[in-house]
Amino acid sequence: MEHREFTPVGSTEVHRVDVRVIVATNADLKKKIEDRQFREDLYYRLNQWVIEVPPLRQRRQDISLLALHLLDRANAEHGLSVEGFSGEALKKLTSYHWPGNVRELANVVNRVACEVESRRIEVDDLPESIRGSHQLAIAGVGGLVGLTRDELEKLHIQLTLQATNGNREEAAKLLRIGTRTLYRKIKEYDLQ
Questions:
Q1: Do 81 and 127 fall within a single domain?
Q2: What angle, 0 to 180 degrees and rounded to 10, lies between the N-to-C axes of helices 60-78 and 87-95?
Q3: Which residue in 92, 105, 111, 185 has the fewest CB atoms around it within 10 Å?
Q4: Is the pLDDT higher at 173 or at 137?
Q5: Which domain holds residue 13?
Q6: Domain total for the chain?
């Protein structure tokens, strides 16, 4: 890679190349190196320029534009003519926490575009997981002002359960509490 040449497997002939390698990961590569699951020399060869892209939930201002772009792409791919989203539908998309990031948004937009019967996507056309999402994300941290500790904990558990699609073991890991503690809190806060 660093000498811009390679020898194909089973050959003795050296080939010259002029390429750029772009790599994306959501893994902690430094930890993978420590655990001997990723080669350190490869890490330093690939780690020349790093562009960190924050998760979609930290870029809420991008969601509407991305959703419209993805809708245009779905229209082109499937021969559709969906014109856009209602304002309320865009608000719901913006308020959702997107645990699957842009891939999840792309899947939702693609599916809804293929299923919608009108020329505009309304709130009712969105999946229940998004329609039922809290408006907390739009309000930002200011939306938390005035909530009690118990209300904050309940909301945190609700959002984590949503993010894990109800998988309580995974939610407990994310919350850094035991599974039994999570079950007790679900019962205590009357969450289902």
A1: yes
A2: 120
A3: 111
A4: 173
A5: 5-46
A6: 3
